[in-house]
Structures are given as structure tokens and as C-alpha cells.
Amino acid sequence: STGEEPYSLAILLLECIETSKRCYDIQVFGTDLNTDTITFARSGIYPGTIAEDVDKEWLVKYFNKVDSSFQVKKDLREKLIFAVHDLVSDPPYSRMDIVSVRNLLIYFSADLQKRIIPLLHYALNENGILFLGTAETIGDVPDYFTTVDSKWRIYRSINKQQKNHVLLPGQPALPQADSLKHTEVQDLPAAKPPMAQPPDRLLLEALPPSVLVNHKYHVMYTHGDTSKYLRLPEGNPSMSVLEMSNPDLRIALATAVHEASRERKVTIREGLSVRYKNRRQLVKITVRPLIKMDGSLIVTFEDVSRPKRRKLTGEATPETKHYDLERELELSRETLRNTIEEMDTANEELRSTNEEYMSANEELKSANEELETSREELRSVNEELTTINTEHEKTIEELTAVTDDMHNLLNSTAIATIFLDETLHIRSFTPAATALFNFIDLDVGRPLRDISSRLKADGLPQAASRVLDTLIPSEHEVQTEDGHWYSMRVHPYRTSDNSIEGVVASFVDINQIKIALAYAESIIGTIREPLLVLSKKLKIVSSNSAFSKMFGVNKAETEGQFIYNVGNHQWDIPQLRQLLDSVLKEDKIFEGYRVEYKVPGIGQRKMLLNARRIYDGLSTTPNILLAIEDITGRPGIEAFSEAKEKRKKGAK
């Protein structure tokens, strides 16, 4: 607080250096928030009671006895720099080997301690030493320091390369204003005193010539004839009382005003001599500080009569000469003493200012190092951003190419496709969709139900809602108002992460297929032989009128039934099952398979079966076309068929 710890630490270091017989240059910085405390520490003067705590050898070696006090010797004092510094808000020092903040952190909150520890780590060099009080600890940041002595709370800084970035609290603090008060002081504006009343004027007339000067010794007001003592200097005009003073009075006047200003007491200079109109005049100068006007002084000049002298042959007596010489000698001594005191004061102020500047310079160095670190980090971040930007540009180019490919694909397929979101609002559509729905570009974002279509029964909204609820794709045949057929397929819209964000509806033109099927059905209807179309599960998909007529069944009743269930299970023949399976799985064709079938109301009939695999053109699922030929009553065909059956059995 008042310098004891910095001086003690410096003494210990000097003793260690002397013991090691090595040569090191040390510099100790002592900081505090209180300007008065720093001023006290700079003086290095301590009461005589320190002799009870300091070793006698150290008192002799590092202190000078001044009256009843001890003052730090110059050699030790030059090792220390004292400065006002705020550990919390000011930028930290840097490149320190030892930092001691003993019994300081206990006054800080936990959050503030967490902010201070990284700043102390930043201030220390690698393997630098940190001193804490016995009741203090570094807290929960052990990666900044390693313990040297847990009892005395001594730690060593580590990981400087990884922990070299500390956010500075602020810009370096400027030197305190009071430490510079003797180097730059703003002139006070000359203020004209109020006009004196008549009684006051009488009192002023009774006073000898006087001047009122401000704290910078500039003349603010004059009274009486001061031409004998003051005059304007040559060159640029100046109102400084020291520059305006008669050269014979300048030194004495300067020492008097400095002493009165510094000690705030009346100062008198007597026995002064000034040459005026070719003769010498004794002068007395009195300087009085004004209490109500801070820093202002009244300087009074009084003429003094010379003491009576006995004249011998027109010359001054030896006593008179001796008196004049003594007065001049005393004045010279007083002037010299004041000059030395002022010089010591100026030197101390210069020392304080220099220390303040050195402290500010250290803080500026720390700030500059931090800025250099920040600049390197910004450069690294900028390079990373450039790399990311390049990657983004490449990704955008790839996405643009993929988008163009998708647009060209959708346009080239000529398939009407509509993309809907989860609320069945339009996300986008292909140009072919405008042939079925009255779409315009501004319809994007509108509900699907608000758009009219050219379909006879527009079941798209219902189908889309059903697919969103069940996630099962649907497919239906729809017809436009002019009779054109489309296959409407609705699928869930899946993203890359397999989430559902709407549906996709596509309309495939099947009008030509429907025409072909109708044509085929008309041909099949004219054939006199019974024909059946079976699904892969051997269910009857369709049958012609010849089949219904021969077997006496209703077409509506047979379609959708298993062939084995038709006609009282008379078609449930194992060999027929094998043949139909081979048609589906191996794409085989069988012809002339002979079966006998008892037809109700007609009797026993002999028939030949022919089968092959067919496709309906709407899907890739194969069906079976089964043709039935009645050979009853046709001896030649029956004989040929029986012979063929016998050959097959003989081959087996």
C-alpha cells in the first residue's frame, strides 16, 4: 500500500543476486489505486519504528538515517517504479517474472477473481512466479498455473502458448492529471476585480505599489506606480511578473513567489537593491497568498531608507560596507537554498512523471502485443472465411447445375407434376401441369383447392390428404372433361434425411394404352373360344363372353375369383398349377394341355388349354392369357390329342 512490499521484494532480490555472485538487472513496479499512497511510496521515507522489524545490516545497507526516520537509498530507489494502476480496468503489464498480489483477491467476488487470474497469467512470462496470500487460491483455472508451494500459495505460470490471448479491459490509462500539474497548466482568464467603493479606495491609496498575480504568476491587477520594479520585457509582450521584474530583483522575487506559493505563507525579502534613475534604492518585497483565490498572490514593493552612515572623506564606513556585504551574502544563500529546493522538487516531479510515462509505456506495449495477437487471429479467421466462401461458391455452382438438370428432366418428360407442402399448398409445378390445372406463376404458395382443374372428378386433394396421413402411395386412373385418360400417382415428398414435407402428384398420359386395351377387348369379345386373363395370384382378371356362355357363369361373379374355385373346384388340378406357375416365373408357353370338365346342364366336355404370359401396358406385373378349346365330338383332334399325351408319358 505505501511501498513496504515492493522495497522488501527488491531487497530480497538484490540479496539473492549478491549471494549467487551473478549480475542481474532488476526492475520492480509498485502499483496502487490511491495517488497519495503512490506519492508516499515514491518518497521512500519511513518512521524509525521500522528498525524493530528490519535487520540492522539491511538498515545500514539500504537506508539513510534522516532525523528520526529512515529513507531508502538512491541505489535501491532507482530499482523501483511506482504508478497508479487499476488491476481490473487498466491493461495488464506484460513480460513479468514475478507478480505479487498477496491479500488482494480476498476483497474480490468470485466472478471478479475469475477475470483477474487470466490477466495475471498474461502478465507473467513462461514459468513466471505468482505470489498470493495464505487465504487466497487460483480457483478453478488450474490450467494456467502449477503449484510450487501450496502452504505459502506460490504458483508457476504454464501453457503460455495456449493461453496467450487475454481480452484487455480497456485502453492504457493516461498519467494522472495531478502528476503533470507542473508541466502543463492552463492559464486562468484575467478577471478584473470589482470596482472599489470610496472607503476601499482610500485604503488602497495607503498601500505601497502592489500587483495581484494568479497561480501561474501572471499579473491580473496592479496598484500604484510599479515602474521602478516592473516593466514590459523586450520582444513579445508577457504578463509574467517574473519576466517583467527588474533584473536586480528577479532572483529574489522568483524565490519569494515560489516559496509563498508552495508553503502558502507570507514571504519577505529585505535588503534588496534596485538601480533607478542613476541611483540605488533599497527595496523590501512581501508576497502574501490569498485564501479565497486559490493560487493567487499579492506582491508588494516598499522602498526602504538606507541606515545612517558616518562619512569619512566622502567614503562609506567599513561597518556599512560589511553590513551590505552580509546582506548580499545572506540573500545569495537564501536564493541558492530556494533554488536547490526548487530543483529537488522539480527533479522529484520529473521522476514521478517519468515513472508514470514508463508505466504507461509498459501498458502500451502490452496493448500493442495484444493487438498484434488479435491481428494474427483476424488474419487466420479471414483465411478460414475465404476458404469457406470458396467452398460455398463451389456448392452453389453444383446446386445450380443440379437445378438446371432437374428442370430440363421435368420439361423433357412432359409429365405433369405438382409439388405440394404439408398444408397442401403449391410449392412448384412443371409446365405440363398447366394442361390439367389452371396454373399461373403467381399460384405458388396458394392452396390446391383454390385452383380449378379440367378433370371430370378432381380427387387430387383427397388423395393427397390420404397419402399424408398413411404415407402409402396411391394410383388412380382419371379422365379429363374431353375424355383424355391419365394415371394419377401420388407419393410422399421425402427429404434427404427421410422426413416428410408434403406430397408429389404426377399425371402420366395413358390415353393411347386405354384405346389399345379397348381395341383388344373388342377383338377378344368376338372370339368364339373361351378366354381368361389371370393375375400372378391366379385370380380371374377378365373373361370373354364365350367363357361365360360355355360354362354358364356370370362375368361379374367370376372376375376376382381364384380359378381353382370356379365350377365347384374342377379346375383345381396340381399339374395345371405347375404349368401356370412356370408361365409366370419362367415365361414358358404351354399348348394342348388336355382336361375333361363336366359342364352343368351340358355334361362331360373334353378341352385343350393354351397359356402364355402377357402385360397390360400399365404396369410391369405380368398376367396369364388362358385360352380354352372344346374338342368334344371332334374325333380327329381327340385322337391327335390322346396320341400327344401318350408320347409325353412315354418320354417321361
Written overview of the protein:
With about 650 residues, this protein is of the alpha+beta class. Helix content is about 35%, strand content about 25%. A five-stranded antiparallel β-sheet has the order 11-10-14-13-12. The protein has a five-stranded antiparallel β-sheet with strand order 16-15-19-18-17, with helices on both faces. Strand 15 and strand 16 form a beta hairpin. Helix 8 crosses helix 9. The relative contact order is 0.05. About 5% of the residues have low confidence.
Can I get a quick summary?
The protein is an alpha+beta fold and 652 residues long. 37% of the residues lie in helices and 24% in strands. Helix 8 crosses helix 9.
Which helices and strands, and how do they pair?
Blueprint: H1 4-20, E1 28-32, H2 35-43, E2 45-47, H3 56-62, E3 63-66, E4 69-72, H4 74-77, E5 80-84, E6 96-100, H5 110-123, E7 124-131, E8 145-149, E9 154-157, H6 198-206, E10 210-213, E11 219-223, H7 241-244, H8 250-263, E12 267-276, E13 279-289, E14 297-304, H9 318-413, E15 416-420, E16 426-429, H10 460-470, E17 474-479, E18 485-494, E19 500-509, H11 511-526, E20 531-534, E21 540-543, H12 545-551, H13 555-558, H14 574-586, E22 590-599, E23 603-614, E24 623-630, H15 635-651
Parallel strand pairs: 1-5, 6-7
Antiparallel strand pairs: 2-4, 3-4, 7-9, 8-9, 10-11, 10-14, 12-13, 13-14, 15-16, 15-19, 17-18, 18-19, 20-21, 20-24, 22-23, 23-24
Helix pairs in contact: 8-9
